Known about the structure:
The protein is of the alpha+beta class and about 525 residues long. It has helices at about 15-25, 30-45, 110-120, 125-140, 145-155, 155-160, 160-165, 185-200, 200-205, 210-220, 225-230, 260-270, 280-300, 310-315, 320-330, 420-435, 440-445, 465-475, and strands at about 5-10, 55-60, 65-70, 85-90, 95-100, 140, 185, 235, 240-245, 245-250, 340-345, 350-355, 365, 370, 405, 410-420, 450-455, 455-460, 480, 490-495, 500-505, 515.
Amino acid sequence: MTKPLGVVASGHKETSKAARLMLEQGGNAFDAVLAAMCAACVSEPMLASLGGGGFLLAQTGNDTPRVFDFFTQTPSATRRQLDFYPIQADFGIATQEFHIGMGSIAVPGVVAGLFAIHQEHCRLPLEAIMEPAIFLAREGVRINRLQKYINDILGPIINASPAAYALAKPMFAPGRLAEIGEFISNPDLADTFEVLASQGREWFYQGEAAQQLVRDCERKGGLITAGDLKSYQVIVRKPVTFASQKAMISVNSPPSPGGCLIAFALSLLDKLQPGQHEWGGVQHTNDLANVMQAASLVRLQQGLTSGMDEAKAKAILAPEHLSGWQQTLKANAMATRGTTHISVADAEGNLASLTLSNGEGSAYVLPGTGVMFNNMLGEEDLNPEGFHRIPPGVRLASMMTPTIVRYADGGQIALGSGGSNRIRSAILQVLINLLQFDMELEQAVNAPRLHLEDRQLNVETGFSAAAMQSLEAGWPGVKLWQDTNLFFGGVHAVERLSNGRFRAAGDPRRGGAIAFAH
């Protein structure tokens, strides 16, 4: 039997296929994750875009992981008349308000991240890495049930401009949105990939594309300037690394608070649950809800709503701070976006955990490129103190938290999630399932979840009757979801066991698709 070359987990089968092809062509995990990122811009167009931002947590062999921060940044222009307005995204049982328009666009980082990661870690030429995405953009991708559902949720954005609508119409029946089973294509995006491969990142940040974006911002109420684009740089950081149970865990680092808040919550749970409770029981579910509330309060108390630094991270994870919260939780009850993820492991010992987001999309598509730009300045999660209040030139803080777990026996897991504020609760619960309840990877990802949003506790069906009764008593107005839903995130994870074998789990909540390369 052929020795496996690696494994990938993502939110779409074409995204995972692109990564698998790179591994089979002699590429490593980083060639694969970039191919998947490009393919996701075609196969998951409302979640991923060259006009957005993201993070890669990269581990080469046994080296210390590093974070590549290519997230979005605040622009420098100020204008009285902004193209900036609210829409309602309807999840069925819950709605969420977002703002879109030219005034919602932050300086994008995906293209810069693509080139920086390629230069640092890849061995295949960029043309080969982009080839699967170019093929998909020209030949089309079949709409699946999840993508149709996302299009329905984000219908107000798709319908906000003819160019945005064109990205969701079927190839052979223009004039309406694509239905399940029909194909969508984006030939302009295929051309964009080819131009990037031949002309480099300068075309996007200083050349023709950049100039058109700046002109449109000036005329139509956007904020990005030529200087914003020219000065954008990928930042390489050390991750936040901490011990939990039998593993070392590395997560996204400041200024993004998501990783530190996961570390805080998991450390509290380690102290609250010295032995194992029954999964889904009263103690387990109440502890989960309480530490989620504690993490939310710490985010406010420590002023993390617009970002954090290393000093705050150390203070939050300090033993005395954790001990104080531990005593509080024992004594009292605490009740009072568009994103996708790709994980890759290869046989050489490399791990790539990449989370990518376009927000929900601004509805602005750069003419001739097929690229819809982000609406990060219109995301309340990223701007909790009010819109357009963060100073210019600041890297936005995100809940996106690519994660790597390293076991004492040499086993390793790369995971992450999409889902706006639900990212940290989704990753936290999968880590608990793995480390405290010894679940295998697929079971840990598929298990029911809960999520605390402000004071509203959302719960997927599947917890015990006693647990639900206790939660409803402690958290009035519990919202029970009868089916699994992308609202609760989408954790896509890969595992390389200590014996060199691979496992993977794609979250069914967000179209999870796995692929093994041989």
